[in-house]
Amino acid sequence: MKVLVTVLDDFINLFFPALCRSCGESLVRGEEFICTECLVGIKRTGYHLDRGNQLEQIFWGRCAVDRAAAFSVYNRGSCIRKLIHKMKYKDDPEIGFMLGRLYGTYLKGSSFIEGIDLLIPVPLHPAKQRQRGYNQSGYIAQGLSFTTGIPVNDKILIRTSGSSTQTKRHRYERWENVQGLFTVTDSESINGRHVMVVDDVITTGSTMEACVEALTASSDTRVSVVALAVTQRLTV
Ligand SMILES: [Zn+2]
User: Fold this and answer.
1) How far apart are CA 115 and CA 113, in angstroms?
2) How many A from CA of 202 to the centre of ligand 1?
């Protein structure tokens, strides 16, 4: 039966070849969603194994982040950047799930996710979500959940208001801009728990900071943060 399935797979592949979501080359048997070359090309930070890493440091003195990690670095021309771009702007949210699942295989069994009760995706601005049709961070969280078994809750943290774009502003203004943007719908349910906020890219950390502020405002909650990528210049 297995042989038959494999033959059938090869047959389907002949007419509908699966392509690497990053470089567009045909995938060979055993490869899934990205080719081996692109997979090897994803530069991993290893932050989940390094307490006190550079990413954790950007939150020091700003908010109570327990642990922080990112899968890769958001360099220009990098595979992860291409994939994230496609995931966000080319109507391909499945990439988020696949990358989350992949990152989960590295996180699984590490102290980084030990004791995490819940994965919480950073909510998108409602207008942006309507326009895009999905929240990519939700897909990443589902992928992480798939491999780690930690449940996802996308109802607890919601976005209240505010402007949707903030790429060109100074960090301080951005910080100002995101404060009070998030609110927690049921603080009792996260009281005494350890939650992990999931985002696609961490740039200055101000969005995460605002999420952490909201999550810890009225409950005794431990918060860790995780993302697919971090921009190389962590401080501005
Ligand atoms: Zn490729």
Assistant:
1) 6
2) 24
C-alpha distances (whole Å) from 189 to each of 112, 121, 192, 213 are 22, 16, 9, 16
State mean pLDDT over 176-204: 89
Whether 11 shows a pLDDT value over 90: the answer reads no
CA of 27 to the centre of ligand 1 (A): 8
CA of 25 to the centre of ligand 1 (A): 6
The larger pLDDT score, comparing residue 168 to residue 25, is at 25
Burial class (CB in 10 A: 0-12, 13-18, 19+), 79: buried
pLDDT in tens, 78-130: 899 999 999 999 999 999 999 999 999 999 999 999 999 999 999 998 888 99
Domain locations along the chain:
1-41, 43-230
CATH 3.10.20.740 fits 43-230, yes or no: no
207-227 burial, b if ≥16 CB within 10 A, otherwise e? bbbbbbbbbbeebebbbbbbb
Ligand 1 centroid from CA 48, angstroms: 25
Distance of CA 82 to the CA centre of its chain: 15
Mean pLDDT, the chain, integer: 88
Is residue 20 within 8 Å of residue 83, measured between CB atoms? no
How far apart, in whole angstroms, are the C-alpha atoms of residue 141 and residue 163?
Answer: 24
Mean pLDDT of 143-167: 84
